[in-house]
Every structure is written in C-alpha cells, then in structure tokens.
Amino acid sequence: MTKPPLPERLAPVVFVVSVGALGIVYGTVSSWWGWFPAPQIGMAHRTYLDISSNWRNDMGLEPTRHLVAPDDGDSGEADPDRGYEVFQPDRIQPGYTLVAGLNNDPDGTFHVVRLFDASGEEVHHWPIRYDELDGEIRPQNTMLHGMEVFEDGSIAVTFDSGQALARLDSCGEPIWSNTGGYHHTLTRDGAGNMLTWREEIIVWVDEETGEEVHTLDLRRDIARGDDRAQQGYLDIRTITPESPEQKVRYGVDPFHPNDAEPLREEMADAFPMFEAGDIMLSLRELNLVTVVDPESGRMKWWQHGPWFKQHDPDFQPDGTITVYDNNTGTMRSRILKIDPESGEVTELYAGTEDQPFYSWRRGKHQILPNGNLLLTEAEHGRLLEVDPERQPVWERHMKWDAESNVIVTEARYIPEDFFTNGVPSCSNEVSDAGNGAPG
C-alpha cells in the first residue's frame, strides 16, 4: 500500500499545532483584555481558593476570615507570649484607646468594641450583635470596620461585607439601625451628622435618628467625564492607557472608596483653599486623595500618590493632610504628610527592621495631642503608639491563639474628659466580655 505524500501525513499534526498555538495566543490576549472565558475562569479560581481557605469560618467553626499572622520581624515565628508591652511609660498619651475587632470569648458576641485606659487595662466593651441588625448575613461573614463614639457612651458601627449601619447604647443595644450596603469608615462632622459610604454614595446620616439627610454619588456627581471637566470637574475614572487607541477598562471595583472625612469648622481656617464642610475622599484603586464640594461634587484639590492603595487621609490642624500609605506589595507601609498648597510630601513613620510596620490593606492612623502617632496595623492584628522621634511607646497584639492575631480595623484615641458621665458601664459586661481583650 502506497503511503500518502509527506505533506498529507503532516497535515493533522500541523492542524493540532495550529489549534494549540491559536489557543495559547487567544488565552494570552483574553487574559490581558478580559475576554471570555478569562473572567469566568478567574472568578471560579478565586471562589475555589476562598472556599478551601475559609470553609471552617463559614460553618462557624473557626473565624479564619478574621485571623492573621503577627509580624515578629525577621524571626518568622509568632511569639506565643505577645500581648501588651510598654516601652516608654512616660511618653504615653493620657486618655483612652477604642479598638474594633473580634471577640475571643466563645460565649460572647462575635464582634466587639473595647475601651482601654492609659495603663492598658480594658475598662469597658460594647458587644456587637450583628445578627440583630441584619437577618440575612451571618456575623462571621462580616467585618466590623467603621466606628464612632459619642459623649453619652453610645457608639455607631458599620461593617465590610455586611449591610448594617447602627448606633448602639453602652450595652450594645440598638438605638437605631439601617441596612443597605454601608461600609468602611464613619466620621462625625461636628454638626450633628455622620458621614459614611453606601456602595459608591457618600451618605450624611443624622446622629440621633439614623435618617439619611444628604447624599453625593461618586459616579454621577464627582466622576463625570463631560465638558464640565473644563469648569473644575475631573474624570477620575481615567487611567492612562498604553496607546491613544486603547479604551479605558474597569474591573468590578474600579474606585474602592474607603474614606469620606469632612473638614470641620474649627479646622477650616488652616485650609484657605477649602471651606468648612468640604469632603476629603480616598479612592484606593486610583491611589487618589481628593477634596470635593459636598453639594456639587466639584473637585477642589486632588493628588495621585506617591501613596499606593492608601487609606485614612486626615486633615491636620497645621493645614497639612496625612495619609496611611499601605504601600501594598513592598512590605513597608508609611504615614505620609502632604502640604496641599505646595504638594510637598514628607514621611512621618515607616517602621524599622526591629519594629516592622506593614498592612497591605486596611489600616488607620491618628496624630495624638502630644505629637505621638497611634497606628492600626490591621493585617497583622497590632496596635502601636510611637513618639515624634519614631520610637515605640507601646504596642498591643490582639492575640487570638499562639499563632494568630485578630484583624483590627481601627484603634481610636479618646480624651480623658470625653465622656459626659465618665467611663461607660453596663450590667452585663462580665458575661459578654468573658476574659477580656485578646492578648
């Protein structure tokens, strides 16, 4: 039998190789441009990883979504005796520290806010019963994030991956509560309202009633890409393409708004370019900090970086703005200070080899009355106060067990004379708090 000519024998091989090459090319291009089936494959892969890592959390067995490894420097091993340690007792800022996080008592509520005095002792706690605020999402699948405290001892809270915004009395009982996609930070404006985010909408909420009294839509009111850009508006969605022919593309969360802070009346004179009530926003995915008019959404000032994936920009009394620069991927977070008039940026703190400081996401900072910095290293479950010379004053690991810390979304300084009737108290404090604070 005569064999077919060589080209005919090679045809199936050439066909298979061609199909394979086309598949590789299409796979590369589809992954780059987000064509089918790259998004679906990516989603399936992320879902698989999430379920395999956190099934114990979702079944209520262990709160794996809330636990992180402590950062113990170069040793690579967690110190089982870590907890609260004081380095300079004479430099501690007098007052209280409010801490949002997870309860380590199996008989208590899942979330809790704790109040520590200047000696490091817990003097009060607020049990947070998320299941009483929202019947749709289980508490272990939410993250207590935003919090505000009031002079009467009540607090307000919001949750990531949850829906609730609520004000609770000193025993954790609801005064009022809302549901509807609230998330991230809460900030009082000094005029009877709190600001927070609901999806991509900035919301002003009446402190006493929980009623929404004003809103500002990020996409509709601020990120407008039309001819009004010539009048002071900026299309903040624009990402510089690699060529003029490329279109701007967005992911599921192109902005990731994570803060909305009002310029309060008592600080407005330090910022002549702004007015009392203007709102400073942090849009993480754009590395953007901006100040906008609360009525029109007009951007009065903005800057991209040098921070990367930042959180918690704050107005300061000296007319500067400080930013928690997560600096994601570098293993070195920073606190930066910027002069909005000159654009000059200086570094206030970045940790050291002996005292590392890094949170790849989340995180808060606060400049205290004595000049110290209060830092929330969220993704290592650690709180830290440092002096102006960048030396540690005290640190607290929010310990869960020998190997894990609890994610801490925020620590907040409270002056000694803040509470109208002294330190808050509640009759069921012992039964809810169990053995006190983690660590």
Tell me what you see in this structure:
By secondary structure, the protein is of the alpha+beta class. The strands form 7 sheets. The chain has a 5-stranded antiparallel sheet with strand order 2-25-24-23-22, with no helix packed on it. Strands 5-4-3-27 form a 4-stranded antiparallel sheet. The longest helix is centred in the N-terminal third of the chain and has 28 residues. 14% of the residues lie in helices and 33% in strands. Among the domains are: 30 residues; 258 residues, no CATH class.
Compact overview of the structure:
With 439 residues, this protein is of the alpha+beta class. It has helices at residues 6-33, 38-58, 130-133, 218-222, 429-433; strands at 67-68, 84-86, 96-102, 111-116, 122-128, 143-149, 155-160, 164-168, 174-179, 182-188, 193-198, 201-206, 212-217, 257-262, 279-283, 288-292, 299-304, 311-315, 321-325, 334-338, 345-349, 364-367, 373-377, 382-386, 392-397, 405-406, 410-414. Strands 2-25-24-23-22 form a five-stranded antiparallel beta sheet, with no helix packed on it. It has a four-stranded antiparallel beta sheet with strand order 5-4-3-27.
